[in-house]
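Exercise (ungraded).
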Amino acid sequence: MGISRRDFCKTIAGSAASLAMLAVMPGRLLATWSEKAFAASKLDDAITAKFGSLPIEESSAIMIKAPEIAENGAFVPVTVSTTIPGASSIAIFTPANFSPMVASFDVMPRMKPEVSLRMRMAKTDNLVVIVQAGGKLYRTVREVKVTIGGCGG
Amino acid sequence: MKIKAVVQNNAVAVKMLIPHPMETGRRKEQNGTLVPHHFITEVTATWKGETVFHAELGPGVSKDPYLSFQFTGAKAGEMLKVSWVDNKGGAETAEEAITAM
């Protein structure tokens, strides 16, 4: 007994639908990406888009490891950590970049509140690190001198 | 992508290197045309089905992103899964066994 033409078509349509669903999956993940914060061209707008208008306090409990002088702004190695209890998110900004928000990390329950990455800096500028803990934001700023800018263009 | 996950002092140190152009949308070809935005937006790491790392990236992250973090609770021999997606729907998932130091 063979599969009727109609059933066959139904099956194909079904698989096509599942494939379409799969194709949409990355899109669903993207929905949690802070599009507005990354699109903001000003530091304060980016911070507000990411965290809302929470109060910001300067903090000495955020450590920024970065070179004093970065030869190449295309690859600036940065390590950020914090000892603020209950830290849930760590975000890195550099105001002079076309898009000041560089990256944001959720501090997952098993994760140590420390991350490293390599980032681009358009020119000599501050690194601004914001840590969210509870309903508050904490900020630490550190300057990095950049010899050759890293954003091209 | 390359993933290294090594047990160190009761924590797993994870380092990853993801080959990706991370185009800022501002770079010009020699003929003057702009190369469109093409960058990784999210990176997620899971261990035994639990998310242990989640990052949102923008075009300010360097080409071929390097990221590292540490998490607790895992043992050598267990698997760590890392996935990323980019702004054009590109994606990759890779698994790597956690190793002893």
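Further reading is listed at the end of the chapter. For now, observe: The CA atoms of residues 5 and 14 of chain B lie 4 Å apart. The radius of gyration of chain B is 16 Å.
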